[in-house]
Amino acid sequence: MSGAVSSALPSTAAPLARAGNTGVSRRVLPGFHLTLGYSLLYLSLIVLIPLSALVFKTFTMSWEQFWVAVTAPRVMASYRLTFGASLIAALVNLVFGLLVAWVLVRYKFPGKRIVDALVDLPFALPTAVAGISLTALLAGNGWVGQFLEPMGIKLAFTPAGVVIALIFIGLPFVVRTVQPVLEDTEKELEEAATSLGATRLQTFTKVILPSIMPALLTGFAMAFARAIGEYGSVIFIAGNMPMISEITPLIIIGKLEQYDYAGATAVALVMLVISFILLLVINGLQAWQRRRSGASS
């Protein structure tokens, strides 16, 4: 019996050995061409076709009409507020998101699970609810605003309120992107740096920061992109005053309500192009950082 089993093993293992020698590996998903075809079809239906419709609708305008629509003073002011506030909010989240992720990963304290769950609250909370809550908090008669406005600090219905709303909705992107990378970081490297005489600042800048920098840039890009397109939470706290606190998505909504579809698509196209360029630059920085980290290691 044992001889029969042993004689059967070579015949079973031989095809596997030959497959391993020839470099042939079994894949769970279908072949490359079929999988690529499904991927391109899905991306076309979800992303490319809607965006191409935006471009084609803009082509119904002449160049002069397009230029007038996208460079009107009110539209230009909304560009400055939207991209400026989004950049400031993403930078703030870059710093404080890292701190929150660090506390959740490196420390144990009572209520840690509750704090961890609260980080995801902006994901689940409807944006209109977030806007109303922030307005009730920061308005002149709100819980916080009633103490700040007598000191000359006005947050609601100003560009500062827009930044606060964008910080609120963008924080989870940084925390959830950096947190798993921090969890996988080898603490032995930090201990080795400390034993070699490195200070805390040197350990952070030379050991920890290079390993989490790609994740930080990814979280920054996601928070920035989310802030650019945010609408629901901002319109309540911004006040929507033309040339002061009016964001570009509100400009687009206003043009649609006036049946100016070509003008709305023109402004949306400018937003699309600028956002794509900025995200392309950020992705380039991510790739450069990964190559640098790989070369240094």
Give the helix/strand layout.
Layout lengths: L1 H20 L10 H27 L4 H8 L2 H34 L5 H8 L1 H4 L2 H12 L6 H4 L10 H26 L2 H9 L4 H29 L3 H7 L9 H10 L3 H36 L1
Helix pairs in contact: 2-14, 3-14, 4-9, 4-11, 7-9, 7-12, 9-11, 9-12, 10-11, 11-14, 13-14
Key attributes of the depicted protein:
14 helices; 297 residues; 2 domains
Outline the structure in words:
By secondary structure, the protein is mainly alpha-helical. It has two domains: 28-59; 62-296, MetI-like (MetI-like fold, Orthogonal Bundle). The protein contains 14 helices and no strands. It has helices at residues 2-21, 32-58, 63-70, 73-106, 112-119, 121-124, 127-138, 145-148, 159-184, 187-195, 200-228, 232-238, 248-257, 261-296. The longest helix is centred in the C-terminal third of the chain and has 36 residues, at 261-296. It is globular. The chain starts with a helix and ends with a helix. The relative contact order is 0.12. The model is unreliable at 1-20 (pLDDT under 50).
Strand content: under 5%
Unreliable runs: 1-20
Highest CATH level, the class of the largest domain: Mainly Alpha
Q: Say how many strands there are.
A: 0
How many strands, which pairing sense, and closed or not: the largest β-sheet? none
- What structural class do you assign from the helix and strand content? mainly alpha
- Termini gap: 54 Å
How many individual helices?
14
Name the helicity range. over 70%
Radius of gyration: 26 Å
The name of the CATH topology of the largest domain is MetI-like fold
Report mean pLDDT, rounded to a whole number: 82
Rough outline: globular
Q: What is the CATH superfamily classification of the largest domain?
A: MetI-like
CATH architecture annotation of the largest domain: Orthogonal Bundle
The total number of structural domains is 2
SSE string: HHHHHHHHHHHHHH
